Amino acid sequence: MIEANELTKRYGRRPLRPVRRERRAKGDPNPVGRLAVDRLSFTVRPGRVTGFLGPNGAGKSTTLRLVLGLNEPTSGTATVGGQRFRELPRGLRHVGALLDAHDVHGGRTAEGHLAALARTNGIPRRRVGEVLGEVGIAEAARRRIGGYSLGMKQRLGIAAALLGDPPVLLFDEPVNGLDPEGVLWARGLFRRLAAEGRTVFVSSHLMSEMEHTADDLVVIGRGRLIAAESLADFAARSPRGGVTVRPADPAAGPDLAATLTRAGATVRPQEDGGGPLAVTGMAADRIGVLAFRHGIPLAELASRGSSLEDAFMELTADSVEYRKAEHQLKGESR
Q1: Mapped to the 3 state alphabet, what secondary structure does 158-193 carry?
Q2: Nearest to residue 291, comparing CAs of 237, 268, 299, 231?
Q3: What is d(CA 297, CA 30) in angstroms, rounded to the nearest whole number?
Q4: What is the pTM (predicted TM-score) of this model?
């Protein structure tokens, strides 16, 4: 598992002004610097594809770098299998990662780049050809990377992540630059890796792609955790969506509403005392299980149209760091 526990990262400590000294003296935990990650705790489990979502500037890339030991946390911990990544020998055998497809020497060939990684991590040389074939760029193995398109560099980055056949994989915006066939291929790859029991953590801005790929979500805004739950439960939070549920016996409506409310759902009152209930904050499958456990037969259980994008936009609205001016938005609407 990947585990973050109260993970915090602050950049740019500056000399304290008097007011900041006063704040620090009063115990203010954030007296100086820019807070990129703020007491972030979550778990990414094996056998699942976990999507990592958040607005621009939310702290996603910083969090991934903290997990990989590329940045040192200000406080808190990030571990893989109970250990810090820096403590793991031959790291690519434990964790494979693609953080930036451009972060590779353009004068090297793909084959040379992967061969160097294999040698320094004690990985058999034959794996170079295997992963190049798996990602579909074997024919370009001896071309210099500087001449690669973005899509080819993404494939090379994925090949590097797969090189050590690791149980844990992290990908930051891995489908940027891929054509539709490439996006479909990447989606299938992530699903297959998870089906093999690996831990797959994927950061992306493409909500539609996450809907087809992720099982679970970790959603952050301004460095803080917004949600860590299944994709279905997160999408069900949107007021535009939700679930329509109607008990077979209208008299059981109040009991069902109370049961769902206690479990954390939001239930709108019945309009006529016997009509269907409108439920948000809980997926249809969980509603069905709760109704069954409490002996309440259902006559209707249907998810209303809602997308992951709807839920994401509504739940992260207060965390958007880069927002257009109101007059610009009005101008665009005309």
Answers
A1: HHHHHCCCCCEEEEECCCCCCCHHHHHHHHHHHHHH
A2: 299
A3: 52
A4: 0.74
The conformational region for residue 266 under phi > 0 = left, psi -120 to 50 = alpha, else beta, is beta
Contact yes or no for 222/58 (Cβ under 8 A): yes
Q: Cα separation of 155 and 203, whole Å?
A: 16
Candidates 299, 294, 198; CA nearest to 246 is 299
Sheet holding 243-247, edge to edge: 266-268, 277-280, 243-247, 298-303
**Residue in the structure block whose two tokens are 């001016």:** 325
DSSP-derived 3-state class of residue 38: strand
Full set of structural domains in the chain with CATH:
2-230 (3.40.50.300), 242-304 (3.30.70)
Report helix, strand or coil for 114. helix
What would the pLDDT profile of 154-196 be if each residue is shown by its tens digit?
999 999 999 999 999 999 999 988 999 999 999 999 999 999 9
Q: Give the residue carrying structure tokens 């109607």.
A: 246
* Token pair 């066939």: residue: 181
CA dihedral defined by 153, 158, 161, 165, rounded to 10 degrees?
A: -140
Strands 34-44 and 199-203, bridge-based pairing: unpaired
Q: How far apart are CA 85 and CA 167, in angstroms?
A: 13
User: Could you give the CA distance from residue 89 to residue 77 in angstroms, rounded to a whole number?
Assistant: 19
- Predicted confidence (pLDDT) per residue in 209-236, tens digit: 888 899 999 999 888 999 999 988 887 7
- Angle value at C-alpha 264, between 216 and 305, nearest 5 degrees: 60
Give the whole-angstrom CA distance, residue 297 versus residue 303.
Answer: 17
- The tokens describing 83, both together, are 């250990």
